[in-house]
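Researcher: Checking consistency across runs. Here is histidine kinase again:
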Amino acid sequence: MPSKAVLYVDPDETDRRRLSRDFAADAAIELEEVATAAALRDALADGSSAYACVITEYRLDDPETDALALYDSLRADGLATAPFLLYTADGSETLASEAITAGFSGYVPKGRTDSVGRLREQLQTVGGPDANRASRARTDQRAAPGGPNRECEREQDLERYRTVVETVGDSMYVLDESDRIEMANEAMADAFETTRDELLGRPVDDFVADEDAGRIRSTLEAVRAIDGRTWKTVDLTVEVVDGTTRDAEVNVAPLVDEGTLTGSVGVIRDVSERTKRERRIRRLHDGTRRLMAATETDEIARIVTEIAADALDLDLNSVHLYEPNVLTRSAARAPSESEPPVGDGSPDATDEEQGGLVPVAMSDRVLELFDGIPSNIEPGGGIAWDAYEAGEAIVHGDVRQAPNVRNPETPIRSEGHVPLGDHGVFIVSSLETNDFDPEALTLARILAANAEAALDRAEREGELAEHGRELERQNERLEAFASTVSHDLRNPLTLATGHLELLAGRIDGDDETDRHVEELEWALTRMDELVENVLTLARSGRRLTETEPVDLAAVVERADRTVEGDIEVVWDGALPTVDGDEERLRVLFENVFRNAVEHGSTSPDSHAQEDDGRHTASSEPSVADAPEDAVKHGSTSPPSHAQEDAVEHDSASPGSQGTQADLDEETTNRGERDGEPVTVTVDPTFEGFAIADDGPGIPPGERDRVLEWGYSTDAEGTGFGLAIVAEVVEAHGWSVAVEESDAGGLRLAVSVPS
C-alpha cells in the first residue's frame, strides 16, 4: 500500500508499542498511535491529516463507549471517512459480525501468532490505491440526492462482509433478500461436507427444516423492529449433505437499506456436543432422583447400570458389591473380569468361601457379550479388585497391558473401575482401546458418588429396620417376663399372705411363735416389694415405639403427690417439654424422689451398721441371682386387668396391706432428718434436665454402680429404684450421668437429644 498514515487507538500502551515495533520495518505503513477516543476524534477532525485506515481496539478508555458506538458517533459527525478495522483481544465471531454490520471494513483477532500478518493483509485490502478516495466517494454519494447505483452499493457492502466472513473460524454466510446463500466461507463448506461453489445460490431451506427457516425469518423481522443493528440467536437442527443432522445455534442479523430488508448475515455454531452434554447431565440428574428413592441395594445397582447405558452411553457396565462370605474362584483359575463362571472341573479351578465382589447388576450388553453373569471377584483377583482396595478410580486404556489382568485374552480393551466406597465397584468397559472421553468418565464418577450415597442410606435404613425388629423382639420378651412376674409370682405370694393372716389369728402362741410370724410377714412383704420393683423395671425397659410431647412440670407435680415421706420438691416453672412416654417419666421421677426420702437421713456407712443380720445390702438378693428356671418354666399366662392396672399405677399389691402402714411410717421417719424435709430440685439444663437432692450423696467410687440392678447403700433398700430410672432413660434413647449436687447430695443429669 502507498505510504499513508494508519491511525491506531488502544488504551493499552504495551499493545500500542508492540504493534509499532511490528510495523517498524514496513515502509508502506506509517503507524500513528493515540490512547483515547477523544484523541482519535481530534486527529480525524484535523483537516491537515489524511489517514488510509483506522485500527481500533474494542474496549476504549471510556467504559461507557466501545469501538462500535464510537464509530457510529464519528460517522454521524462525518469523521468516519477512512476504513475502520477492529483489532481486539475481546473478539468473537458475533462481535466481528456486529462490527461489519455497523460499517467496519474488517476484523482481526489480537494475540494470535498470525495476528500481525492478518492485520497487514486487511490493511492492504482496505487501504490500497484509491481506497480512501472510494470510501469518501461512497459517503458523498449516499448523502447526494438520488444516491448512487444501489447495485454498486450492494457490491461494496458485500465486499466488506466478505472480509469478515473469510476471517472468522465458525461457519458464516450472507443471504440475499430471497434467502439464498450469497456468500459462505470455507468453514461452512467444511461443516456441510461440500464446496463453497455448491453452497452459493442454494436456498437456506435446503439445510434446515421448514419450521426452523420460519423461525429465522420471524427472528429477523423482530430484530428489524428494534432500533439499531441487533443480533439474535436461534436454536435449530441443520442437515448435512449426507443426510445426517446436527444441533446448531445461529446468530442472525438483518441487512437493511433505507428500511428495506435486503438480506441477512448468519454465524452457525455446531452445538451437538454441548447438547449431548446437557442431555447427559439432565438424564443423570433424573436418574439420581431414582437412586435417592431406591431402598434396596439390588435396586440401586440396577438403576446405576441403566443410567450408565442410557444417559452416559456406557452400554458395557456392571456393579459388583462386596459380600463377606461368598463362593469365589481361586486366583489360579484366573477368569476374565467379565467372564461368566465356568464349571469345567479342571484341577486348578477351586472354589472357597471368603469375602469378594459379587456381580449384582449389569447392562444387557454385558449379558449378551459374555453369555451370562460375570463371576465373583476374589481379593487380589485382578484390576477391578485393585481399584476397590485402593479406593480410587482407575482407568485402563488397554487392559491387556495391565500387570494384574486376570485374562489377557479378554475381548475387553478399555475399562474403568470406580469404587463405590466400601460397598463395591462400578465397572465400565469398551471393546475399543482408549475409548472413554474425559467427560463420560467424570459423569461416571458423579454417578458412582451418588450411588455410594444411596447405598449408604440403604444400609442405614436396613440397620434401623433390623434394630426396630430387635426392639420389637425385646419388648415381647420383656412383656412375657412381666406377665410371668405379675401372674405366676404374685398369685402364690397372695395365697401365702392370706394363709399367714388366717394362721396368725388362730395361733395363741408365745413370744417365739410371734417372732416367727413376724419374720414370715416381713419376708412376704419383702418379696412383694421385690416383685413390684422387678415388674416396674421390666415394663420401664421396653423400648418406646411411640412418643408424644410431655410437659415435665406436670409430670413432676404428679410424681410429688404420690411419693410418701417428708419431702419438698422445688422446680423451675420453665421445665422443658420433651417427646416421651408420660407414665414412664412419672415412674422415673417417683423413684428418684423415693430414693431421696429413703436415703436422706442417714449416711451410707450408717445403713450398714443398722444391719440386723437378716437383709443387709451385701446379702440382698439380686435379680441376676434368681434361678433361670424361675423364668424359663414360669407360666406365660397374661395377668388380669386388675393386676396390670395395679402395676402401671404403682398401687399397693395384694398381700402387702398388713405391713404397708409400718413401711410408710418407717419411710417417713427416715426422711425427716430431725424435722427437716428432704429437698429435691428439678432444673432445666442445656442438654435436658437435672434432679438433685441435699442428702448424703454417693461416694465418687460408687457412682458407676448406683444405676445397676440390686445395688443399694441402704440395708432396707431393694436396689431397684435408680436402676428403674436408668431403664426409663435408656428406653427413651436418652443418657444419664451421676454427679454430686451443690448441697453435696445426689444429682442425676439427664441428656435429651434434640
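Researcher: Does this match what you'd expect to see?
Model: One thing to look at in this run: Residues 128-148, 330-349, 602-672 have pLDDT under 50 and may be disordered.
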